[in-house]
Amino acid sequence: MFKRLCSTAMIFGAAALAPPQAAVAQAMTCLPRDALVERLEDRYKEHPTGGGLQNPQQLLEVWASDESGSFTVFVTRPNGLSCILATGQNWTGAARTQPDGVAG
């Protein structure tokens, strides 16, 4: 019984000491959009492949490289600050197809 009580106390104690989500979100890599775009183009040979408004205050962008397969997903705010949400390898873009009956 005492072992279970101590184990439970340790688990809940560790959970209480965990950093709040706001602190985790602040650890995201953010920098001016111009600097990020320059790095993506020069170092990783990435270019815009998609994106859209996540909400009126955030533009979500997906950049990828056909050469290396790398990709970066980031959000840009109105103040010009961009925060990287995800990066990875082996990007495969979806093939764009023309819907039936649409001239184009």
From TrEMBL:
<feature type="signal peptide">
    <location>
        <begin position="1"/>
        <end position="25"/>
    </location>
</feature>
<protein>
    <recommendedName>
        <fullName>Lipoprotein</fullName>
    </recommendedName>
</protein>
<keyword id="KW-0732">Signal</keyword>
